[in-house]
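R.M. (postdoc): so does anyone remember the format we settled on? I'll just put the structure tokens first.
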């Protein structure tokens, strides 16, 4: 049995490459890139024997995708369904927040199930027969966390408390699933959420306020296929594109899992292959590297690579660097160079130490009656604002929203 696993397509007709909005063949370049990846997946499915295709969430990038995004998604899923049953679960980007009635996935309707397209926006068990083999698919889409805020008894929970509560409920659902296993079938979990030990990027672990599930809860499933984390890792196929310079070291691709039945009829995973997709490359050069041998490095990277030049220079050096960048006539280049500040502040008693944003918020809240209840939410919001501010200044890299 062979299962193809590819999540987080984030189909949308928007996005910038190296800060530029580009149209190619009438569609946004970011969508054009994704179409190339989707085509490669469709070709793979057409050329190889596949028994099940799982797309665990974030097929779309937003709840109200553009017509062209819908066209790309529907055509791809129809194409894939000619070769194998397709299971799609709802991700956080597909919509359905709070009291929303529909998600972007509503375009598929429910009548498509008889044609082998199974869209799931709630936890459920889907029995599938593929090439005379029984598959029991268990779905666990992204939960509607914000819906809980409308329930009076949960209104006072902090984001961390709410995430823990939702995570606990999801683990209960997983437990319930294991009681419904079909011992003659392949029991597969297809879901969109974070695993507790997961990584957002090569150097960023999952933050504590995200809903997460402990991986012990997966032990009994024959196969666990998740979406949400864009970096390929255990349980995750990763995304089919790179979201920007923050993901230049992240591989984009999909996975193929091979399983075979042992003498007792149990399914054993025999191979897991990661197939890399030719997603657009991103490359950051330090300003000194750029001045030294930037032209060679950029030639070597090729004209489709997005380049960023980063670092600090003195005021008088800046114009020269900008001239050099312009002279390249390179389509995808981002100037993220900062000019070194020339002002130095000296205060009595030495250098003054500013408190961190978090410290400042906590100091402000000290002894204020009633604030303590909201302090964690304030701190989280402050951290988020500080993060966005730093990203805006190019001090840190943004990792695309999972
Ligand atoms: Mn997601």
């Amino acid at each position: 049995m062979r299962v193809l696993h590819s999540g987080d397509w984030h189909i949308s007709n928007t996005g910038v490459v190296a800060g530029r909005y580009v149209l190619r063949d009438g569609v946004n370049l970011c969508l054009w890139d994704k179409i190339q990846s989707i085509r490669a997946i469709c070709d793979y499915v057409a050329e190889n024997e596949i028994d099940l295709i799982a797309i665990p969430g974030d097929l779309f990038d937003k709840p109200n995708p553009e017509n062209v995004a819908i066209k790309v998604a529907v055509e791809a899923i129809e194409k894939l369904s000619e070769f194998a049953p397709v299971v799609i679960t709802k991700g956080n980007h597909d919509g359905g927040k709070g009291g929303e009635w529909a998600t972007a996935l509503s375009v598929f309707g429910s009548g498509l199930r008889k044609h082998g397209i199974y869209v799931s926006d709630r936890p459920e068990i889907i029995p599938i027969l593929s090439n005379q083999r029984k598959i029991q698919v268990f779905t666990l889409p992204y939960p509607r966390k914000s819906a809980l805020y409308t329930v009076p008894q949960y209104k006072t929970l902090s984001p961390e408390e709410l995430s823990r509560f939702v995570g606990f409920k999801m683990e209960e659902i997983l437990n319930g699933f294991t009681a419904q296993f079909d011992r003659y079938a392949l029991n597969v979990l297809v879901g969109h959420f974070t695993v507790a030990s997961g990584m957002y990027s090569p150097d960023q672990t999952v933050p504590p306020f995200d809903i997460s599930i402990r991986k012990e809860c997966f032990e009994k499933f024959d196969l666990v296929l998740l979406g949400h984390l864009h970096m390929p890792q255990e349980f995750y196929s990763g995304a089919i594109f790179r979201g920007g310079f923050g993901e230049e070291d992240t591989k984009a691709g999909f996975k193929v899992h091979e399983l075979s039945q042992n003498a007792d009829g149990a399914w054993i995973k025999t191979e897991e292959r990661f197939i890399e997709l030719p997603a657009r490359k991103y490359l950051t050069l330090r300003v000194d590297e750029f001045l030294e041998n930037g032209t060679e490095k950029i030639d070597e990277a090729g004209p489709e690579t997005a380049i960023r030049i980063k670092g600090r220079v003195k005021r008088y050096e800046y114009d020269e660097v900008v001239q050099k960048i312009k002279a390249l006539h390179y389509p995808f280049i981002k100037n993220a160079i900062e000019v070194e500040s020339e002002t130095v502040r000296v205060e009595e008693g030495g250098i003054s130490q500013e408190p961190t944003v978090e410290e400042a918020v906590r100091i402000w809240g000290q002894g204020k009656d009633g604030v303590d209840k909201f302090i964690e939410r304030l701190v989280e919001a402050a951290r988020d604002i500080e993060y966005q501010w730093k990203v805006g200044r190019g001090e840190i890299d943004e990792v695309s929203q999972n």
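R.M.: ...and that's the designed sequence above, right after the tokens. Also worth knowing: Residues 57-58, 91-93, 192, 228, 402 surround manganese (II) ion (CB under 6 Å). The chain has a mean pLDDT of 90.
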